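Quick one: co-fold with zinc ion.
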Amino acid sequence: MSFHSLLGFGFGNSKRSGLKRNWTKMECNFSGHTFTNRFLIASLRKRDYADDESETWQTLMDTVARDARYMWETGVKSEHGPRYWGVVLGIIGDWPFLHKCGSFSRSFNNIQKRVNVRSPPVGICHMCKAGQSEYPFEQIETRRPAWLATEFVQDPFLLPSPFATHLLHEPGKEACLWNFDWFHTMHLGVLKYFLGSVLALLSEQEDSGQVDGRFSALSAKYRLWCHQNSQRAHVTKISKESIGWDTTSSFPTGTWHKGSLSTVLMNFVEAKLSSETFPNEPLLGLAADACKAIQQCSRIIYRSSLWLEPAKCKLVAECGFQFLRRYAQCATLAKNNGRCLFIFQPKLHCLHHFMVSLWDAHQRNIKGFNPLGMCCQQSEDFIGRPSRLTRRVTAQMPVLHRVMDRYLQSTYHQFISSGYLVRPGGR
Ligand SMILES: [Zn+2]
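Sure, here it is.
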């Protein structure tokens, strides 16, 4: 577990960004080495909190929540005089983490899998009733879905949460302390579903005999495109295995775990769909629209500050809604043709939430919150580092102390090289 400031140095892609010039701006916290902008709170091995040790998890949550309370209530006094406070504004993590951290009765794993069920479905979202009988989360083609009126009306907690007790929050809206994040929603979710189907359809446009031959031909085009456009390919081939498409009766979806691969594949697919036409495959025509819309949506937020002007909220939301509409149309058309393509998964609902809230900001003519403000992308990089450290320390006790020691040593080094700490003599 770690924490980080909401504010940082932006995305490192503008000339203005950089340590010296940009430090008081309302920018997202992406740029810079993650050891200098993410701060480790606790690290545990799986076996320390699994099975027989499951109470450890609850203790950790309770301790972190109490610490967070201390930070807004009492604060920490510097030896030089001033007192500092810290306020936790939100909790992020992948969906399994949110589910476990909040002890939610409703999350992605409560999705209804059969047509007929004995008890009514409990819903898939801790913030609204989506996924319950009257409120399908699949209603993604509208900006006024039925679930919209059900935000924060139903308590999502199985157990009272220490975070709801100790953190400051809007009364009655405890649930929105836990935030969906763009990276898990898109790069490791929606974009993988979309790419799975689009790559399957593109492979069918190749005329190299069997399915493996067609994927080889598509892979060659992918590698060439990456080479010509100076993009890192990450993989040497795209195969039916990479989209989990063993048979045409299974829904293809990306099987990779690397967010940056989703990004490059989206750029490749965007270039291909915008430069070619596929008169024999109407699904690719709809997918081209969807691709263009979500790429534009993504580019805008990755080039924006923490707050989006109302007009920008409108633009981003319109792009996002267009993607969702086209995705739903693709799914319907595929279904009518008896094809398993464009799978519906709960993460589409998270994207829907992002877009609905930006649309709401536009309608109220207020600045909207950039979804990348609460994003795990950099935290994932950060988690990877201590996790690699744990593999390098010997497994004797107290291994967790040694992980922390190594982490602090590495952080110290990064603080020096980033100029946050200056050693006497300037070395
Ligand atoms: Zn919801």
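If it helps, The mean pLDDT is 92.
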